[in-house]
Amino acid sequence: MDITIHNSWQPYLQAELNKPYFKSLMNFVEAEYEENQCFPPKNLIFNAFEKCHFNDLKVVIIGQDPYHNYNQANGLCFSVNNGITHPPSLINIFKEIENDLQIPYPKSGNLERWAEQGVFLLNATLTVRAHEAGSHQKQGWETFTDAVIKTISDKKERVIFLLWGGFAKKKSKLIDESKHHILTSGHPSPLSANRGYWFGNKHFSKVNSILKTQNLCEVKWS
Q1: Omega before 40 within 30 of 0, i.e. cis
Q2: How far is 115 from 120, CA to CA, in rounded Å?
Q3: 86: which of 24, 70, 208, 222 is 20 to 30 A away, CA to CA?
Q4: DSSP labels for 43-74?
Q5: Numbers of helices and strands, H then E, in the chain
Q6: What is the four-CA torsion angle of 144, 185, 165, 97, rounded to 10 degrees?
Q7: What is the Cα–Cα distance from 162 to 184, expressed in whole angstroms?
Q8: Are 95 and 104 in contact (CB under 8 A)?
Q9: What are the residue numbers of the active site?
């Protein structure tokens, strides 16, 4: 399977891509895409790396699994293609942005506009079989994406990590808190948000406040 990870990432990840587990993972993914309907489209599996280059990265958001219904997943966590109905978690993300920053609810659920500003939108598992949540977990993706998170922690400084929900919070062990910022809250899914664990976290204004102190451009979250 051809792997296209943007050049800016290759010096940091090439050793990982050459490991036996990763080659086994690629064989698994290749077979899955041949035998089943899988998401995202093959050319967008590494879209998070394509849209947010290593040198530009300043914020990391960690998701778990790609969306598993037709035309939704585009390789960026929580993001859907233009014109697609916003899934419940994304609706709650946009509602929090609306309340936090007093800006209108965004029309498009395609978060490429965030990625291009240095927001790295990483799912822990980068592929999934159609209509089968979690179907590509424990095949090696988590080993790879954990290595990506640790690489960002080791090779960069003052990155802001947004860890939403129990799964994402466990990734804090991969991050050096002495040189990075970690913001945590409940997950934006309705189950968590409706219990009061998501709304009011003000993560989007907090991110911009931190970026401002670092003399970096604030993220336009609209």
Answers
A1: yes
A2: 6
A3: 208
A4: GGTTHHHHHS-GGG--EEEEESS---STTTB-
A5: 9, 6
A6: -80
A7: 6
A8: no
A9: 65
Q: Are 169 and 82 in contact (CB under 8 A)?
A: no
Q: What's the predicted TM-score (pTM) here?
A: 0.96
Question: What is the full per-residue pLDDT of the chain (222 aa) written as tens digits?
Answer: 777 799 999 999 999 999 999 999 999 999 999 999 999 999 999 999 999 999 999 999 999 999 999 999 999 999 999 999 999 999 999 999 999 999 999 999 999 999 999 999 999 999 999 999 999 999 999 999 999 999 999 999 999 999 999 999 999 999 999 999 999 999 999 988 888 899 999 999 999 999 999 999 999 999
Other Cβ atoms less than 10 A from the Cβ of 31: the count is: 11
Q: Are 122 and 153 in contact (CB under 8 A)?
A: no
Give the C-alpha separation, 214 to 31, whole Å: 45
Q: How far apart are CA 85 and CA 77, in angstroms?
A: 15
Quick: pLDDT tens for 83-118.
Answer: 999 999 999 999 999 999 999 999 999 999 999 999
What are the tokens at 118? 């240095």
Pick the closest to residue 51 from 149, 2, 122 (CA basis). 122
In angstroms, rounded to a whole number, what is the distance separating the alpha carbons of residues 91 and 8?
A: 32
pLDDT in tens, 126-155: 999 999 999 999 999 999 999 999 999 999
**In the structure encoding, which two tokens stand for residue 25, read together?**
């993972």
